[in-house]
Structures are given as structure tokens and as C-alpha cells.
Amino acid sequence: EEDLLSDVCREVVQKWSESQTVDAREEKEDELQAIASMMEKQARIVVKPKEISQEEKQRKAALLAQYANVTDEEEYPFPVPRETRCFGGHTLSALNSLPALFRNTNVEDVLNARKLEREQLRDEFQKKKEQDKLQREKDKLAKQERKEKEKKRTQKGERKR
């Protein structure tokens, strides 16, 4: 019976391992089939390039050329009627005559801020330097006074002897 039992166990293990390999093959085949179907779907999707007419291309080129020629010193490129009123009773033509409204001043502002900061640091350093000098002089005078007091005390002590 023991021989039969070991044979049956071997047979069960063999059948189980065969079923596992069959399941693994089926899963791999399913995965491959899914990947193939996804690739087919992607191949069917075709992106049509947008057709741009020659007129639209020319308009776009003209706009780009217009904005490429604008500099900071020129007036704002939109045409404005001369006597158009805006808020506050000012005319837009007066606003357009001010080129500083459309000039980028960020770099100048940063440089001026750095310059002010350097000047403040320089002034603070100068004040600290003067204070240190005064403190050294005070310390020197105090040291001299202590020496003189010590000298007088020693002279007094010698006289008493």
C-alpha cells in the first residue's frame, strides 16, 4: 500500500504541475492577444494634420512680423483714435505719447535696489568702523587709568613702610 500511496502522490503532483503550466501558457496567450489588439487599435487611429490655407499662413506671418518690429521706445502698436477719452478725463493719445508706460524697467529697478543696498552696507560699515575706533580709544584710556591707580596704590604702600 505504501508503494501505491507514493505512486498516487507522484501522479497528483505531476497532474497539478501540468495544469499549472497550461494555465501559465493560457495567461501568456491572453496577454499577447490583449497587447496585439491594443496595437491594432492604435494603428487604426490616424491623426489628420490640420489644413491651413495660404491666406491664414500669410496673416500669421504678417502678425509675427508686426510684433517682431515693435521695440520698447515705439508707441503701442494698436491704432488708437487721437481724441478718445478714457477714465480720469485723460486722452489715450496723451497716454500713448509716454513710451515709459510700455518699457520694461525690471532690470533698472533691481540694479538701483542693489546699488542702494551697497550704499547702506557701506555706510553701516563706516559707522561700525568709527564706533570700534572710539571703543578702542576708551579701552586704552581706561587701561591707562587703571595703571595710574595701581601705580599710586603701590607708591602709597611703599611710603607706609
Automatic annotation (TrEMBL):
Q: Which InterPro entries does this UniProt record tie to the protein?
A: CCDC43
Basic residues composition bias: residue spans? 149-161
Composition bias, kind Basic and acidic residues: at what positions?
123-148
- Segments of this protein annotated with the region Disordered: 123-161
Q: Under what name is this protein listed?
A: CCD43 protein
Q: Which organism is it from?
A: Alectura lathami
